[in-house]
Design brief:
With 153 residues, this protein is mainly α. Helices cover 51% and strands 0% of the residues. The radius of gyration is 25 Å and the shape is elongated.
Length: 153
């Protein structure tokens, strides 16, 4: 096992803190620095793993600082935002509908409903008597072209 320079160790620690797998880190180190390292060597730089329990304080602090920053900055990534995902699903569904691909449109609508939450799930308030849950016996899906005025179905 070769001794690594500080900049390579920092790269490995930061990549692992960003939830990259040891295999991904091995490939990134080879690309970035041209150095061959093993997965085990990379894993020894992760203080959350058994192999990294004896990692130096400097690297442990760097790992935890990087992980904290990574988790906080996830909110700034557009796809991590529900509104962005719903807008994108809406555009894709409209495009699929224009292409007359109804199966894909239905899948995209289902995905959007799941994204919103309880919209896709059939949850109805229980009657006061605490009766049994009523299962739906029929599901009806209608596709309406919202661009046409007074479109019923």
């Amino acid at each position: 096992m070769a001794v690594l320079r500080s900049e390579v160790k920092a790269f490995i620690v930061q990549a692992l803190a960003c939830f990259d797998t040891p295999s991904q880190v091995v490939a990134a180190v080879k690309t970035e620095f041209g150095i061959e390292v093993t997965r085990q060597q990379c894993e020894s730089h992760d203080p959350t793993k058994f192999a990294g329990q004896r990692l130096g304080k400097k690297w442990v602090d760097l790992f935890h600082h990087t992980r904290k920053r990574f988790r906080e900055e996830t909110a700034e990534i557009p796809i991590a935002n529900r509104a962005y995902r719903l807008r994108t699903l809406g555009r894709l569904a409209e495009k699929a509908e224009n292409m007359r691909n109804m199966a894909l449109t239905a899948q995209l609508l289902e995905q959007a409903a799941k994204e919103v939450g309880d919209v896709y799930v059939n949850r109805q308030p229980k009657p006061e008597g605490g009766g049994e849950d009523v299962l739906p016996t029929r599901v009806q899906v209608e596709v309406v072209d919202a661009r046409k005025r007074d479109a019923d179905a």
